[in-house]
């Protein structure tokens, strides 16, 4: 299993993206039996390096089995990737990785999958400094552009204003939008943006990043916490507050998921201490439903 730490240790985002995507496909195939009734004359198992345009995405979404079709090619789609680059994404997990590091790896792997499938893929980086936008393209030069933008991005400040983000929803275009965010917001600004994207693009996959040490509250004894966006601090005894914290966290996660699904978003919680496989699988499922 390729952990986020191992991928990050490569210090090479294009290589990490390729290994994450192809390792996931190959590993998922190898871990499952072939099942009965399949017409093997029309399929062969996926092998790293195969053209992903020939992958049977519908079969993958139904069963997590990865096979190459010998004839058909799926219809290409437009995939728009969104990265929340506000300062809260600098939160560091016990494995040493920031949420931003995990998000870079994840979005690079998703871009690799989409581009190899023949999709037009674009990237928007959302930060208070302004909207960094790469329009969706399907040419071979797009992946290096996306990798460079991800590698050079730093998380700063608060989530950008509605005015800054207006170009994202300026026109209707059917697409699969994939947003990676920790969903820390001051006044519903992320929620409103995703609602508008749902109305203009039609399909939004929301990948909610939560660090492992946030989920299990691994801190001990007296601790000072600082809000990465406002600078405010709070001091507490972690051992005394653990139960209350975990109850409040679970309530927030439950409410967040319910609100997202009421908006028609495809919501998934991701633990940054775990491999990228869950997110890649959800991307394939959503893509198949649009194909």
TrEMBL record:
InterPro entries for the chain: DUF58 (IPR002881), vWFA_dom_sf (IPR036465)
Q: A Pfam family in this protein?
A: DUF58
Q: Where is the DUF58 domain?
A: 42-248
Name of protein: DUF58 domain-containing protein
What's the source species for this entry?
Hymenobacter setariae
């Amino acid at each position: 299993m390729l952990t986020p730490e191992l991928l990050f240790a490569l210090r090479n985002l294009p290589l990490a993206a390729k290994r994450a995507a192809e390792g996931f496909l190959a590993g998922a195939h190898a871990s499952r039996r072939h099942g009965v009734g399949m017409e093997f004359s029309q399929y062969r198992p996926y092998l790293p390096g195969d053209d992903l345009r020939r992958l049977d995405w519908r079969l993958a979404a139904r069963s997590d089995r990865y096979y190459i079709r010998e004839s058909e090619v799926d219809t290409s789609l437009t995939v728009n990737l969104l990265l929340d680059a506000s300062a809260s994404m600098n939160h560091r997990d016990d494995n040493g990785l920031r949420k931003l590091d995990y998000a870079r790896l994840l979005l690079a792997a998703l871009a690799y999958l989409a581009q190899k499938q023949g999709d037009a893929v674009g990237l928007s980086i959302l930060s208070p400094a302004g909207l960094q936008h790469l329009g969706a393209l399907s040419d071979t030069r797009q992946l290096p552009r996306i990798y460079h933008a991800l590698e050079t991005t730093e998380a700063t400040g608060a989530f950008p204003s509605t005015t800054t983000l207006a170009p994202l929803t300026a026109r209707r275009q059917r697409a699969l939008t994939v947003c990676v965010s920790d969903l820390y917001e001051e006044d519903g600004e992320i929620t409103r943006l995703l609602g508008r994207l749902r109305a203009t693009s039609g399909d939004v996959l929301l990948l909610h990043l939560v660090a492992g040490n946030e989920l299990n509250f691994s801190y001990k004894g007296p601790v000072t916490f600082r809000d990465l966006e406002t600078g405010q601090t709070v001091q507490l005894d972690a051992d005394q507050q653990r139960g209350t914290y975990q109850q409040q966290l679970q309530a927030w996660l439950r409410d967040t998921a319910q609100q997202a699904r009421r908006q028609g978003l495809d919501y998934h919680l991701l633990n940054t201490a775990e491999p990228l496989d869950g997110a890649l699988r959800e991307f394939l499922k959503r893509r198949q439903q649009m194909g």
